[in-house]
Amino acid sequence: MHKETGTCSARAFEMRYQPQYSQEYASGGQTQGQNGYRMLGEGSCPDGTRDTNDDMVTKNWPLWTGFALLFIPALWFLCAMFGDLTDDGKINGSNLSPEEEARFAKDNGGLKRVVAGFICMVASLAYLTMATGHGFITRCCDGRSFYYARYIDWMITTPLMLWELSSLAQDFGIGHTDVHFWWLFFLDILMIAAGLIGSLLCGSEKWVFWGFSVLCFIPILVQLCGWDTEPAGTAGNEAGRAKYKRAMNITVVTWFFYPIVWIFAEGNGSLTANGEAIAYTVLDIIAKSVFGFVCIQELR
User: Fold this and answer.
1) CB-based contact 286:250 (threshold 8 Å)
2) Which of 29, 41, 70, 214 has the greatest CB tally within 10 Å of its CB?
3) 58: CATH
4) How far is CA 256 from each of CA 169, 171, 186, 221, 248, rounded to the nearest angstrom?
5) Full domain range(s) for residue 129
6) Does residue 47 sit in the same domain as residue 173?
7) Which 3 state secondary structure label does DSSP give 8?
8) Vertex 142: Cα angle to 153 and 265 (nearest 5)
9) Can you give the pTM of this predicted structure?
10) Whether 86 and 16 share a structural domain
11) Based on the structure, what is the number of domains in the chain?
């Protein structure tokens, strides 16, 4: 891509005359000059242009890996939940022992497992879309591939993850989590929307939207960490607090790195599109698949 005009052309190598390579030789009593030429090295571009190959995802293995490691846990979560509901005719928790009934009720009738499966299923659909060459546009200003499918995924799955965390907080007796969840829900939607708008821009105003997104993100982190510090309403329910803390730590740590990847990928473009795909894939697998296993452990 030409840096000044923005026009693009297929990669080509140019031949340039190099005076220092000129030499003279005698032939038939006359002195003649021989022009010297050199070819630019492989992977280089003509002067005034830059190689936009790094702005496109040319290796699909990170996307297919993300699809597999999100789809398989989704099937496990949903199939395990179906097995729990239909085992020995125990539909809707009927014919359960008192201990099983208490555990079933604590799981909100299996809703946690269903939500964990739905989170991974939605994310796997986004990765299937990207892996098959869809769900992206090429930004006109710089030629970089932008995968909007990720933001559709995050717009659906991150509020569900917040619901899972608020439900886990309720398990060890924290009050008013329903009110706090709706507060976090609207902040989360604004955070994702601001990041999406900023990703579609190429000028310096993109950083205004990134800053807006981060401002919405900070209260979410504060609230999630704050639930862990509140006293439990149920005496002796430290096991529930420990479970919430593990899920919360996974969310806080992984979500903290998303805006950092955004800076180097959608932000200044210093991270290649392939590097961006790998970084987001690793974060999504940890933030959704690993998070789901932590949320539903000890439910069976």
Assistant:
1) yes
2) 70
3) 1.20.1070.10
4) 21, 25, 18, 9, 12
5) 54-296
6) no
7) coil
8) 45
9) 0.79
10) no
11) 2
